[in-house]
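Entry — protein

Goal — fold tokens:
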Amino acid sequence: MKRSIAGIILAALAALPTASLWASGTEEKVELTQGLYAEIATEHGTMVFMLDYKNVPLTAANFCGLAEGTIPNEVKAPGEAFYNGMTFYREAPGYAVFAGDPTEKGSGEPGYTLPREFNSSCDTGLPGTLVMDGLITESSGSRFFITIEGDSFLNDRYTAFGTLVSGAKSLKKIRWGDTVKSITIKRIGEEAEAFTFDEEAFAALYNTAREAEIKKLSEIDPALTAVLMGMGEKRRKSSTGIYYEILQEGEGAEPKMNSQVSMHYTGTLLDGTVFDSSRARGQTFDFTLGVDGVIPGWTEMAMDMKAGEIRRAVIPPELAYGEKGYGPIAPNSWLIFDMELVAINR
């Protein structure tokens, strides 16, 4: 007897690796097919997300590694689950709920940020999308949010990496101050089992993403790529998109807003042209952070330095002189500053 097409399809589906799941606090029963999943347990029940580890591997690996305690960070001890016990520190009613901040203030990180990944199959226009928080060019290292109604506007500004498959009722009950009791990662199928997110695997994905990011900048200006590649392994990136390297370590506390500081600097264009230098004048540049008019990138870098520190910063146009430019600085110019924090005066 010939088998019906429907029967053949059902038999094929039955052969796929699956796992039954009763979502706590709901009446949903979901058959999980092959893939990588994150179960986020709260006092309102458990939400289950299918993670897009194939298209945004770094983002997925980072989330899973923090959840399982396999990625070193500045907040939790090795092997300790990063997210367990944290709260939903922010709620935008009817829009999204936010978690993953160790400071609970909306700006905390695990000690690093991530380059954005742009090829996700997840759609922020749908409710129940798991998204890394952050800025346009950089993702947070740990903060994430979950869309409640969905907003496709977010697709071009953040990296979405998970889709809700169970727990819609739980999601709608979450409010500011509720607790992330735990995040459990589940692998179903050989491909998901082969996806690792230990320290070594994460470092490889991170370095690959950073290299791709630098190469993409060559479309803006090949000279910019050359400058950044010249920084080598010491190159870092701030959450706002400033690339920098520390040439000499400093000591003591960092200045704060309204601190008066003395600095030496040399500013150059990407082609090496020097457009200004306090060293050439033989006099430090003294100013008050947040009061005197300096470009935003300068304020950010100065507040992250210690007395005696020297760093080279490559500042994007939006944190420098933007679309208008200034004097010899053309519009939309990236600028290089060799900066030394000589002293914090008060």
The chain has a mean pLDDT of 90. The first strand starts at residue 19 and ends at 22.
